[in-house]
Amino acid sequence: MPEETNVFSDIQEIYSSRSGYNRLYRCQRYGKTHILKALLPQYMGTAFYEQALKKEFNIGFQLEHPHICRTLGWEQIPSLGHCILLEYVDGITLREFLDQGKLTQPLAAKFIREMCSALQYLHSKQIIHRDLKPDNILITHNGNNIKLIDFSLSDCDDYSILKLPAGTRYYIAPEALRTDVTLDLRADIYSLGMIIAEMAKLLKDKHLAAVSRKCTQQKREKRYASAFDVANAVAHSHRRTYRAIAAVAMVAVVAASFFFLMQQKKEIPLSDTSYPVYGNQVINTHCRHLLEVTCRKLLNNADSLTDKQSWNADSLRLMTELKQMFDKEYPLPDLQQTAAYRNRWQSLQQEANRRLAETYQLISIAKNR
Predict the structure, then answer these.
(1) Average pLDDT over the chain, rounded to an integer
(2) Which of 1, 52, 76, 94 could form a disulfide with 134 if both were Cys (CB 3.0 to 4.6 A apart)?
(3) Which residues contact 57 (CB under 8 A, 6 or more apart)?
(4) Residue 294: CB partners within 8 Å, gap ≥ 6?
(5) Roughly what angle, to the nearest 10 degrees, separates helices 105-124 and 186-203?
(6) DSSP H helical ranges for the chain
(7) ∠88-94-97 over CA atoms, to 5°?
(8) Domain boundaries along the sequence of the chain
(9) 222, burial (CB in 10 Å: exposed 0-12, middle 13-18, buried 19+)
(10) Crossing angle for the helix pair 227-262 and 206-215, to the nearest 10 degrees
(11) Topology of domain 3-87, per CATH?
């Protein structure tokens, strides 16, 4: 390969470790932005740190996951020495994201799911990150996607160097401080739990707090057995939250319908032009059947007109049953947040109110004869 094709331009230092042994540079090659990771000047040429940098490259180079920063190559640059060529991620650290107050419930669930996906992938390759913390997690500006970075302290079975206790103290698992314990993936689960705890505190989320407490048990056998289990626990807690929100929304909708019925006068105009056109694309067969059966029952029970309380109770029961039947078409909480769901439910309510009004007038006519 001609030497000029390997030339990096516009090399600018963007980070220098205070406690570690490396530094980062942003650069250009082939018109594209990259990151170069090199040793600090005082460590260049030292066998131990040269081996540690090469180990980080060898671990990173085998990883291919959408939520892990890609390792692209191993370079030798005269002014920098040996370097790891990394994917450039346009974003900010999770630490900055949290400090800026940008975290929301949906984003927290998304971030945890993506972190768990990356960790599950790492652990399947017998790799432990060992330094999971908000500073080593990037959030992309485009899409708010997770990118896990920095494998300088990572460990796997293929290497014997740099297996001393390491990591950031606040996030490090208790067993990682002991030299007589062999670490496993549960060390990363502990660190993940500390990150989830920060999110739970910011959001005042009791479910996330409960998940974080299990992740951070002092005895590792009491923690979740895998990142997959953590993701499932978080997803389960949020499904319960969404179900509670849906239940509250259903009560509000039924109450609004009840209020509407209470305001109806005895004579209600029945002009079809006042209502949207309804068809099977709006109201399914089961809902139509329920409407027909209920209205026939009301017609056969003429006393319901004179007993206002009974009429309102029957109308409210109809709305509740319709909502339950309609929700079977949208079993997932996310589906119930869509515009299609809202529009179809609104149409169904209007049709039910129209049919009730027709029934009410037919009973009135029959009684006045």
Answers:
(1) 81
(2) 94
(3) 71, 74, 84
(4) 314, 318, 321
(5) 180
(6) 47-61, 94-99, 105-124, 186-203, 206-215, 227-262, 285-300, 303-306, 308-327, 339-368
(7) 105
(8) 3-87, 91-240, 264-368
(9) exposed
(10) 170
(11) Phosphorylase Kinase; domain 1 (3.30.200)
pTM to 2 decimal places: 0.63
Q: Note the pLDDT of residue 344.
A: 79
The pLDDT value recorded for residue 159 is 46
Amino acid at 190: Y
Distance CA(51)–CA(45), nearest Å, equals 10
The pLDDT tens digits of the residues spanning 259-269 come to 555 555 444 34
Question: Residue written as tokens 């900055």?
Answer: 96
Place of tokens 């900010």: 92
Residues 330 and 251: their CA atoms lie apart, in Å, by 17
d(CA 81, CA 75): 8
Orientation angle between helical segments 285-300 and 308-327, nearest 10 degrees: 170
Distances (CA, A) of 335 to 8, 129, 151, 241: 48, 36, 38, 15
Quote the CA–CA distance of 105 and 98 in Å, as a whole number.
12
Query: d(Cα 294, Cα 359) in Å, to the nearest integer?
Result: 10
CA-wise closest residue to 71 among 127, 9, 12, 13: 127
- The CATH number assigned to the domain with range 91-240 reads 1.10.510.10
User: How far does Cα 122 stand from its chain's mean position?
Assistant: 20
Question: What tokens does 300 get?
Answer: 């056969």
36 near 24, Cβ under 8 Å?
A: yes
Task: List pLDDT tens digits, range 56-74.
Answer: 999 999 999 999 999 999 9
Contacts of residue 338, Cβ cutoff 8 Å, sequence gap at least 6 = 330
Q: Taking 60 as the threshold, does the pLDDT of residue 369 lie above it?
A: no
One-letter amino acid at 103 equals L
Residue 314 identity = D
Which residues make Cβ contacts (< 8 Å) with residue 187, sequence separation at least 6?
128, 130, 172, 173, 175, 176, 220
Exposed / middle / buried, residue 299 (Cβ in 10 Å: 0-12, 13-18, 19+): middle
CB burial string 37-65: b at 16+ within 10 A, e below: bbbeeebeeeeebeebbebbbbbbbebeb
Farthest-apart Cα atoms in the chain, separation: 106
